Batch of 4 targets.
Target 1
Amino acid sequence: MTNPHYEAVKRRLKRQPRTWLVTGCAGFIGSHLVETLLKLNQKVVGLDNFATGHPRNLKLVRQAVGEKAWKRFHFVRGDIRKLRDCYKAFGLKRPHPAPAPQHQKFKALNSRFKIDIILHQAALGSVPRSIKDPLSTHEVNVTGFVNMLMAARDAGVKRFVYASSSSVYGDSKELPKREDRIGNQLSPYAVSKYANELYAKVFGRCYGLETIGLRYFNVFGPRQDPNGPYAAVIPRWISAIKKGGPVQIYGDGKTSRDFCYVGNAVQANLLAGTTKNKKAVSQVINIATGNKMSLNRLFFSLRKKLAQIIEPRKHKKPIFRNFRKGDIRTSLSDIKLAKKTILYKPTHQVQRGLSFAVS
């Protein structure tokens, strides 16, 4: 499946390269964005502190794009919780104390990188982690987010695309999930992402920063870390099945998600970053496939696909555990707004994406 508009955007970018800043560049989604942009002849600045991202992801990107393209990548090691590191990503030195915004003055300083578009992916993910440690989630996801908005404002950058989350919908039972109808958030992580959306809109009103939020629905794919207590379900299960270990399902397995392959998320970021549709600015847009899959079905789909590459004796039955606090029972996206505003069209449905994920 293809999206003709997306293909046209990629051709145009090759002809007219821009400079992009990708935060969380060593992470799962961030590294895929860096790889795609470099393959499209773009210049990319990456910011990461390797808290959840991995140097190996950048090594994989380098191998995928080749040395010539890799020369167009500039890495800045920094922490978005530190305002000076955010400014450093733009090649700026933040005055101390910070003056009132003087965009022309800051823009003149922004001569090293001349960032055109920001794709902000850096965050501390996981609902369970946020329940265990809400302060760290707030520091990274809220304070760090405002720091990036400040740096973007003072660097004179116009377009700021950022990652939000379907967790914002909280306890809303309405299906499919529409952007203008949310419930009560169920975790500190969800609150932090909702705060991002509010801050982005305010910076648009106060400072003219063009922001577009992308509410991701359970993005998955290659380079997603399967290790640790807060690993996402798909890479964790793939790793467990391959090793012949236990697969744990929290709840009865009827919990469902709108799983979205990472290629769709990359498409959405590039479309949002380049769209000329003013009606897309200050919007928050669902990014998913518009289809749901239960955890039970996900398990059997993965087991079937992995049967082609591992011995059948290693296929285990799942172990059912208690429901986790903060988990949403059912998630299904309405993607009409994404289709209308940025001409998004998912190119990878779940089964196709799973085939890439297990390979």
Target 2
Amino acid sequence: MPHPMSASRYARLLSAVLLSAAALLPAAGARAGQYPEHPIRLVIPYAPGGGLTVLGRPLAQKLSEALGQPVIVDTKPGAGTTLGTGIVARAPADGYTLLLTLAAFATGPSVYARLPYDVERDFVPIVPVSASTSILAVHPSVPATDLKELAAYARTKPGGVDYASSGTGGDMHLNIASLLDQAGIPGTHIPFNGGGPASNALMAGQVDVMLVPASFGLPLVLDGRLRPLAVTTAQRWKKDLTQVPTLAELGVADIDVNGWSGIFAPRGTPPEVVARINAEVNRILAEPQFRAFLESVYLTPLGGKPEDFRETVGSDVRKWRQVVQRIGLQPQ
């Protein structure tokens, strides 16, 4: 029969094991606190030149300064934003591939019969960044200065007015389709691969009308390259387009055509990484200089907790499902 281990020898062995384990704890803690250790990829699922890159590049620069690593903007337009969004869904959940996207993120379940990801299951909402406003604008050649004149013009064209958006099924598409439906204006949707290409087509007279995000559309309006018909805010603007009415003033009420931008990570991203990015973005959004920049491009800083952002996304998924049913859009 083997000789039992003595009490003193057992105590010495146990002490050595505990000391070894304790020695490992600081190292593990240091590794967790070292994020990020290499550059971060910030995927934008829209074409360059749109409102999201107007926001994304300055935000990435501020995040680079805060995190001590480059935050590289990677625009991946295509397939109605599902191309870039899918890249992030399939990326390792380590905090080094993030998604900066718009409210169209929540339209996917309603407009696509088969998505390569689940917007509520496969992503971790980190932080909402900004709220946006838009300008309902037409090409200067369109003989309309209000919705009634736009409706009259639409009835002279087969298929009605041609209206542009950043892609089929996105919030820009659903918003203007819902708006035109409520205003009784017939139209044909012409999708583009992002807000920038869509606004370029509007300036070229290839389409008639568009909800142009104010973040990059306002200079086009002020330069006379586009004619504004309405703004999407609840009240008229206090500067710049003070003479332009709101949609409510033109008889289009009870319609939410403003959107948000926000940052997401793949499902399974460590909570401490989510918390770090959330804290840094909230801090950036509180900086007076950055807030002034956002306001200069007609964006409203948001910020907040991940759990609250998750509730917003879920609420929007349900809202867009109702909009899609109302306008009769068939899932693709």
Target 3
Amino acid sequence: MTDPLETPDAESAPTEPAPVERWNASSIAVWGIFILLALCALYLARSVALPVALAGLASLVLTPIVKAGSRVGVPPALVAGLLLLALLGGLGYGGVALSGPASEWIQRAPESAREVERKLRFLREPVARVSEATKEVERATQLGGEPREAVVVDRPKLSDVLFAQTQEFVVGLLMTGVLLFFLLSAPDSFLEKLVSLAPRLQDKKRVVAAVREVESEVSRYLIAISAINAVFGLAVGAALYGIGVPNAALWGVLAMLTNFVPYVGALAMAIVLTAVGVLSFEAPSQMFLPMGVFVGLNVVEANLVTPMLVGRTLTLSPVVVFVWVLLWSWLWGIPGGLIAVPLLATTKIVLQHIPPVAPLARMMD
């Protein structure tokens, strides 16, 4: 039986290639305007968009646990509630346990800065000579000039800034928890709606297979990265405790969090541990020991552990990672920088399964 849409000379007619969409100035301008508007929207709506992003990433990690409970007859809502209580309880306990040492270091910050300056005075002598020469030049250029009035800048107190940020953090945490509970209580609701949009049964099967594969790869990556960073933080805390650094648990947790931000996080943590070592030890040979221990563990983790466990399939370009971290740090501050790389890896995995935009995923390598 012939196809009613087929013409008699359809076989003999030459097949014309599909038209290739070409980029012109107008299409580039439209996409540029769209990207700028999207960035502005993410920046302005960061108080809502950030909890949504955090809940989405957390749901990808915890959804396998919910589904495992469903297979043995446990309702998803019950598993979601237990997981949420465990997460909030762990965060609450960790926050209470580390709040004392953290607040003590924050209160000692001005005094600690002066102490670091005093202990590193032997490194400042060449810089001091250059600074003195600069001051002489400034005095020479200001001879005969009118005296300038000093301008006093009224800056907000550190306690007020921290209190405002704490309030914002608590509100964002509650929003993330509520949204995460809804996502985990009905893990397949979004997939069912997406499948209903496919017109044919074959398309529905293809959508289900693609979503399942993306969900599996993303969750496996996020679980692996979270486990690696947790073990890395534990190793840093144990090593610092072994060499006698005070509040080693605090620095271990900070090392775990900053390890989510490649390059920038390691650099910031090395600077912090340099200051901690200077404040904790008197001998110059011991001052830089905490920073050296951290750098050694970071080199092992970044070049051996992570490539072995995560694999080379999710390698990311250092340039793309650096620009991506800067972008999300500007959009959402420190939380944006922490989740930037997981978002980038998730974006790459999703793009790999969409043929029209698959070349963008290869550009991230």
Target 4
Amino acid sequence: MTAPGALVDRLLASGALDSGGGISPFTALAVAELCASGGFDEQVALLRTAYRERRDTLAASLNESLPDGCHVRLPGGGFFIWVTLPKEMDSEALLSEAEAGGIAYVLGARFHSDWGGQNSLRLAFSLYPPKQLVEAGRRLGRVISHSAPRRA
């Protein structure tokens, strides 16, 4: 039987633990085992279900709470919902009020190379449980409704 210290020495000498700036060997082996065991597909299915529920919960809350003229776009993938405000509104001007109400978002203009998107914003839904997402939609709806231009 080989002594544990000798096994560690052989492992270290093999280079298996050297990342060289690449992926972590330990993480790669753990993921390989998860894939080989069939657990990966099961985990992906669980995550897809959880994220779909979160996405749909936030979208429903936004659709109920946002004033007329706002548009909610569901993602085909990813973890963000896009909201387009009426053209005359500026998401940057609303940000401090939204943050004071406990809501944060990323300005849509940061994702436009042509400097457009001033009336859009991006919301993340992957981190928060559905109950918080319902409240977030309501709070954002109040902020936007308070600032939205009145239509005749």
